[in-house]
């Protein structure tokens, strides 16, 4: 996609990266590395969760069997003329990447010796070099307004995170010829699109990458010319969005199902809708722009939450003592049962049980 900025997110498309001047210290770094650190710090401080989401989509694409087509351009540090794309080295750096809030904390505190050079370079490539289109976390109230405009039921599953896609070009740039209809009569519309998690990074960053991907890997190597399928029903879109493995350290979850809210130009020559099945087929994917991403991710306990407030924290701290106490109680029970006094109490309890059963029979048995 091109980099023409939209007015609603212009405030986050650029910023004073050189405004963060490091303090004088013993640890000196080159100026070009400092520029990367400043740029990365600005984006992380602007919207940490959105950076986490975009990095998660990148990781999902890197873990895909189609990584060579999903990651374009491929991070240059991992490309060589002899070996080609070094996906193993890329995955190794991804595995070495700590949580982004830890990266930000090290930058703010100038713990540069804690920042791996390869991790910094890769984060800079994904979040800064490929920063457009950018993601912006959407509040719940704003999302409710979006759903009301799309006439969705209140019973739909609530996403864990919603992101606005910023700095995308206007749809009309994708139409090479002059439209033969009145644009006022066919304004852009919104619909949902479900797909595998590893497909969305390419759909955001590559021109013409909005393509329908197969739900399974049976035809993994085939180039699909099928039209892009949208739907006006969120439940139907979720059926085409299976849980996918993302970044394990992501605050959005390690397993995520992603649905896109797309804006499409209702061009009569390329867009065909089936009102009965709520399916919309777009024969020209360039007419589609992703406006929002809905994340349905697994939740993790917050590490900042006090440990004593976690439900299982006391059991976890005292599991050895509890196991030992249960074992001693079991041994004591066996010893009492095998002793002489134990046999006496067994007979007493047996007689009491028989008396209780006879009493119940007399009460509940009809005369």
TrEMBL record:
Annotated InterPro entries: ARTD_PARP (IPR051838), PARP16_N (IPR041400)
GO MF entries: glycosyltransferase activity; nucleotidyltransferase activity
Transmembrane segments: none
Keyword set, alphabetical order: Glycosyltransferase, NAD, Nucleotidyltransferase, Transferase
Record domain PARP16 N-terminal: where: 44-127
Similarity remark: Belongs to the ARTD/PARP family.
Name the record gives this protein: Mono (ADP-ribose) polymerase PARP16
């Amino acid at each position: 996609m091109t980099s023409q900025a939209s007015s609603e997110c212009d405030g986050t498309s650029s910023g004073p990266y050189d405004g963060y001047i490091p303090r004088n210290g013993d640890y000196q770094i080159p100026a070009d590395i400092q520029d990367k650190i400043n740029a990365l710090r600005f984006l992380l401080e602007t919207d940490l969760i959105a950076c986490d989401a975009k990095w998660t989509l990148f990781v999902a694409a890197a873990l895909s069997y189609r990584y060579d087509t999903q990651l374009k351009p491929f991070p240059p540090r991992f490309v060589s003329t002899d070996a080609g794309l070094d996906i193993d080295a890329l995955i190794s750096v991804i595995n070495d990447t700590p949580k982004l809030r830890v990266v930000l904390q090290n930058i703010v505190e100038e713990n540069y010796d804690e920042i791996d050079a390869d991790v910094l370079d890769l984060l800079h490539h994904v979040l800064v070099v490929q920063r457009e289109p950018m993601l912006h976390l959407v509040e719940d109230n704003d999302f409710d307004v979006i759903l009301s405009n799309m006439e969705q039921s209140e019973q739909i599953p609530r996403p864990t995170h919603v992101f606005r896609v910023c700095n995308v070009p206007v749809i009309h740039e994708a139409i090479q010829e002059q439209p033969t209809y009145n644009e006022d009569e066919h304004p852009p519309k919104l619909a949902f699109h479900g797909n595998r998690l590893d497909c969305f990074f390419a759909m955001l960053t590559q021109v013409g990458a909005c393509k329908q991907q197969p739900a399974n890997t049976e035809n993994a190597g085939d180039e699909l010319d099928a039209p892009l399928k949208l739907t006006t029903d969120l439940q139907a879109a979720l059926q085409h969005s299976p849980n996918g493995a993302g970044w394990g350290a992501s605050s959005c979850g390690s397993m995520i199902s992603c649905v896109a809210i797309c804006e499409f130009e209702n061009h009569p020559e390329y867009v065909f809708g089936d009102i009965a099945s709520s399916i919309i087929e777009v024969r020209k994917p360039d007419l589609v722009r992703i406006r929002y991403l809905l994340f349905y991710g697994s939740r993790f306990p917050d590490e900042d939450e006090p440990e004593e407030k976690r439900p299982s924290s006391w059991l976890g701290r005292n599991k050895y003592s509890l196991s030992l106490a249960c074992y001693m109680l079991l041994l004591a029970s066996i010893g009492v049962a095998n002793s002489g006094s134990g046999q006496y109490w067994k007979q007493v309890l047996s007689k009491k049980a028989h008396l209780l059963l006879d009493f119940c029979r007399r009460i509940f048995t009809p005369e």
